[in-house]
Amino acid sequence: MELRSDTSARLSFFMLTLSTVILECGGFSGPIVNSFPYGRKPAQVPLGGVRRQAAVRVQMSWRLPKGYRREDVAGGDMDPSFASILGNRLGIIASLVNNGSCVLDVGTDHGYLPIALMKSGKALKVIASDKNILPLDNARQSLERINDEALEQLELRLGDGLAVLSCGEVDTVTVSGVGGKVISEILFGAEGDAGEVSERRRVQDYGVRRVVLQPTGSISTLRKDLLMNGWEIVDEIINSEAGWIYITMVAEWRTNENQGENNISAERMLVGPHLLRRASNSAAEKILLREWIKHQLRHFKSRRDGMRMSSEDV
Ligand SMILES: C[S@@+](CC[C@H](N)C(=O)[O-])C[C@H]1O[C@@H](n2cnc3c(N)ncnc32)[C@H](O)[C@@H]1O
């Protein structure tokens, strides 16, 4: 019971923080017509005969203010050539990979991101991995369909997370389309491994220095785990595609000095300072951020109300 009221107080605190942030965001407020929290079904978006999976969980149902079109809500420093090939969701990840990188794309499924990175010449080498055979077969089929010399440096590997990797093979890891907790486990090991921390290999132990992540949920958990493990979140971008909001974060390895939960404010965890900074400069990102925060508020409220009801039952 005590745990419940503790959690309920925390949720109220989160809601208050988010309400404050939403006031700071100001700007436009489009009417929310309909929404559902962290849906399970991936949206299927047809693109030039190719099936693109959009796996992000915050549905946006709002009308853009006059003067804005849906396509305008790219957000961030999107490379237009990637946007036209991959769409906004995967396009922003490709845009955030540095030129000349060697990349591991964990959970690649269709393999579109690795293919675009190789074909564009942005990456020197890409390993596309998946822990399941069928998704990796999807990637293989994509490669066979395209059948391009530029893809010779693209390797497919079957395996769980970083287990497919040898030390020093890549400098960048991308993960998208899975939740923040799964991403955290991929990068830093599973929960419950606490006793084996010293033996557990974390992403930095493989020589990786940059990660580009697009979680489908548990974003604040992922922020916290990155910071706690010595990574600095250097950018976060909010954008949208086909009515869904995506948050993409870039983190770079610094050091594990001066990091720790105590240094990290609740606001920083919940919303992310980069999203706030960007929203203050870009009307499009401001609109998206407001909608995302409103969604979070509804999510926390329904969790808190659910807890209150179940404690009344007892
Ligand atoms: C929804 S798909 C996302 C595909 C692609 N990354 C995208 O964003 O469109 C998620 C993929 O991640 C894979 N996956 C989940 N956990 C994984 C892990 N620990 N290691 C490797 N692959 C994983 C699943 O098999 C699935 O193919």
From TrEMBL:
InterPro entries, per database record: SAM-dependent_MTases_sf (IPR029063)
Signal sequence bounds: 1-27
The entry's keywords: Signal
Database matches in Pfam families: Methyltransf_18
Domain of life: Eukaryota
Name of the protein in question: SAM-dependent methyltransferase
